[in-house]
């Protein structure tokens, strides 16, 4: 049987675990696939996708910093419309490029089911206002937190999200103006990709559940910082990565993979 071609595009991309995850899912169903990592700088996604399609590509995941660019060049479905950010692309039978966003549902599955952390009635801080934050807001808001505050260096990006989602529970703040304690702090910045740290006063981490969208087979810098400063619980984004990938896999292949088995395999590789 010939291999089906899929891939993940972003910049940087070498750290991505998506190829391993999709291969582990495929093995559960005896699906033969080839899944590539493709480095695509900002502004070049359309061209990269054309080349990928010409060599037989069926679908692609999109990661930082390309999720908003992906939204602009595809026909967005469901959750991607309000988010205006896309993480899963595929060509339909009419060869139209369709895009959706599985990040938020993947995050909520990891938070609520895998980790058993609550969202309703909680105060949530999200650091970062990029494509990942856009993708997780709608599902997080649907679980009735008391408030979600977005902190970002560039406040115009935060303002755009607050205005677009238009929910009384959604606020924004400069890092230096944060003042309440939070039950859950989500690091949705890409700071770790450049080895930088975020301008958040680490005292906020004390007593909070801290979730890093970043992931690594060892501890991430944000999780390390949170542990050091007395966080109540800490998790990186590997669980979310696997859950969002599973939702994308189901869109592409029509079957739902077992995620806990894949989580166990990847964690045991650490
Ligand atoms: P974008 O490039 O769209 O946005 C990056 C965000 O990070 C911006 O808000 C930017 O702030 C902020 N940022 C970057 N460097 C710093 C810094 N040094 N200090 C403070 N803020 C900083 O990226 P995405 O939103 O698409 O992705 C963000 C991260 O989430 C990535 O690391 C990605 O790997 C991860 N992710 C993980 C997923 C998972 O499944 N685990 C799923 C989706 C994303 P500013 O606007 O001020 O420049």
Short description:
With 270 residues, the chain is α/β, with parallel strands linked by helices. The chain is 38% helix and 20% strand.
Task: Describe this entry's structure for a reader.
By secondary structure, the chain is α/β, with parallel strands linked by helices. Helices cover 38% and strands 20% of the residues. The chain is built from ten helices and twelve strands. It has helices at residues 18-28, 45-54, 67-73, 79-83, 103-114, 131-142, 155-165, 221-228, 238-253, 259-268, and strands at 4-10, 33-39, 57-62, 75-76, 88-91, 97-100, 123-127, 147-151, 170-173, 184-187, 209-212, 233-235. β1 (4-10), α1 (18-28) and β2 form a beta-alpha-beta unit. The chain is globular, with a radius of gyration of 18 Å. The structure holds NADPH dihydro-nicotinamide-adenine-dinucleotide phosphate.
């Amino acid at each position: 049987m010939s291999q089906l071609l899929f891939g993940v595009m972003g910049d940087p991309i070498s750290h991505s675990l998506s190829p391993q995850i999709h291969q582990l899912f495929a093995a559960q169903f005896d699906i033969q696939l080839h899944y590539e990592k493709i480095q695509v700088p900002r502004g070049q996604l359309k061209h990269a996708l054309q080349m990928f399609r010409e060599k037989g590509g069926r679908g692609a995941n999109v990661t930082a910093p390309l999720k908003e660019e992906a939204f602009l060049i595809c026909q967005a479905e469901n959750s991607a419309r309000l988010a205006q950010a896309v993480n899963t692309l595929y060509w339909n039978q009419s060869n139209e490029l369709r895009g959706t966003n599985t990040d938020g549902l993947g995050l909520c599955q990891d938070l609520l089911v895998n980790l058993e952390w609550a969202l309703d009635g909680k105060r949530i801080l999200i650091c970062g206002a990029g494509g990942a934050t856009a993708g997780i807001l709608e599902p997080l808001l649907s679980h009735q937190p008391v408030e979600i505050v977005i902190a970002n260096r560039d406040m115009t990006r935060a303002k755009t999200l607050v205005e677009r989602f238009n929910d009384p529970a959604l606020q924004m703040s400069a890092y230096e103006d944060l003042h309440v304690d939070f039950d859950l702090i989500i690091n949705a910045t890409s700071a770790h990709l450049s080895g930088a740290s975020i301008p958040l006063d680490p005292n906020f981490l004390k007593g909070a559940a801290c979730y890093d969208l970043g992931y690594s087979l060892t501890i991430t810098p944000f999780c390390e910082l949170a542990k050091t400063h007395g966080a109540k619980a800490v998790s990186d984004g590997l669980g979310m990565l696997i859950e969002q990938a599973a939702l994308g896999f189901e869109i592409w292949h029509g079957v739902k993979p077992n995620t806990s088995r894949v989580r166990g395999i990847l964690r045991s590789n650490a």
